[in-house]
Amino acid sequence: MKDDTLRRADPESRGSPQGLAVTMATAVGDSPADVSGVYAALDLGTNNCRLLIACPTEGGFRVIDSFSRIVRLGEGISSTGRISEAAMERAIAALVVCRDKMRARKAGRLRLIATEACRAASNSEDFRNRVAAVTGIELEVIDRETEAALAVIGCSPLIHPKARGAILFDIGGGSTELVRIERDRESGDPDIKAWMSIPVGVVTLAERFGGLEITPESYASMVSEVTAHVAAFGAEHGFNLYGMHLLGTSGTVTTLGGLHLGLARYDRRKVDGIWMNDIEITQVIARLCGMDYQKRVANGCIGAERADLVLAGCAILDAIRRAFPLPRLRVADRGLREGMLVEMMREDGVIQLS
Fold it and tell me: 43 and 154 in contact (C-beta within 8 Å)?
């Protein structure tokens, strides 16, 4: 097994997420100094294209527009090494919508990122040139460390105020990031103590093991595959977990949250920030494993776009739970986009570093 896992444990140089340097992309707006007061953050991932447009408020920001569409940019990359023509067309169609929304809202401060699919594909540069030509959007391909750091910025408000820290995980389409966060003893700010990234996400895992018909044996094989990637990080950083909890951001955990709440249709307002204990997580995953593909499609919290991916995500979560056996998980329907917005607004001094 080729292991492209990245790990880092360097608390002195990482510091708190507030101090992380972030590069800006401003292809669609007039300039970084645009005074419109409207910010936009775009995240083109292996599976999803997501956009948030927001204005700063006292202590935070107010979302004025958003967009999310499953585009499966990374479909087939694990076998071909290339972004397919169909995937390019789906992604560009979504990016045209994003461009039009940013123009309509007069967003002047932008960050427009791409993640694992564009890191891995041999024709990534050709794809990004095509995106720029068609949409005017110049995508910034971020590395895995930056991806983990932005997830921390976006999700750290959900760390329980009395918790010593959290194990944050972000299950993506083509990669998964894990971060050990601990509060600074003096300031109480969340510090990144260690992080890792593996080139395994729901799309890559489902393509390897299948996503339509999942047997107990194939599910166990998926868990074992991911366990092999995270075992070393867990052995090194899975100690002294007292006072910590899991903090998950991904379509997998939000889907589990919606199922746990018994929602007929997914509702972010009800899911973001909920708690699930270990038994509840196990029960919901068992329910999912008991559904065939058609039942997953028919479920309002899953649907056709996630029905072949959600069990791969559950397998990744189970491997993480093995490495970090914590009793509670907090579900985050937030992540990179929120992290980018907060970072830009902090750099501009329009919200406080808190």
Answer: no
Domain co-membership, 137 together with 232 = no
Number of domains in the chain: 2
Burial of residue 289 (number of CB atoms within 10 Å: 0-12, 13-18, 19+): middle
Q: Are 132 and 124 in contact (CB under 8 A)?
A: no
Q: Check residue 15 and give left, alpha or beta (phi > 0: left; psi -120 to 50: alpha).
A: left
Residue 37 is encoded by which pair of tokens?
């007061």
Q: How many CB atoms lie within 10 A of CB 142?
A: 23
Could you list the beta-strand ranges (E) of the chain. 6-8, 39-44, 48-57, 60-70, 109-114, 140-141, 165-171, 176-183, 190-198, 244-249, 275-277, 328-332
Residue keyed to tokens 């194939």: 218
Domain with residue 57: its CATH number is 3.30.420.40
- Predicted structure pTM score: 0.85
Cβ-contact 125, 132 below 8 angstroms: no
- The closest of 166, 201, 113 to 327, measured between CA atoms, is 166
CATH number of the domain within which 248 lies: 3.30.420.150
Mean pLDDT of 275-290: 97
Q: Residue 6 pLDDT more than 80?
A: no
Q: Say which DSSP state 49 is in.
A: E
Q: CA separation (Å) from 74 to 77, 115, 135, 313? A: 5, 10, 20, 15
φ, ψ of residue 286 to 5 degrees: the values are -60, -40
Structure tokens at 231: 């075992």
Length of the chain, in residues: 354
Residues of the domain holding 55: 19-144+336-347
15 has a pLDDT exceeding 60: no
Indicate if 226 and 304 belong to the same structural domain: yes
The pLDDT tens digits of the residues spanning 218-231 come to: 999 999 999 999 99
Per-residue pLDDT, averaged over 103-114, amounts to 96
Show Cβ contacts of residue 254 under 8 Å, excluding neighbours closer than 6 positions. 266, 268, 271, 272, 331, 332, 333
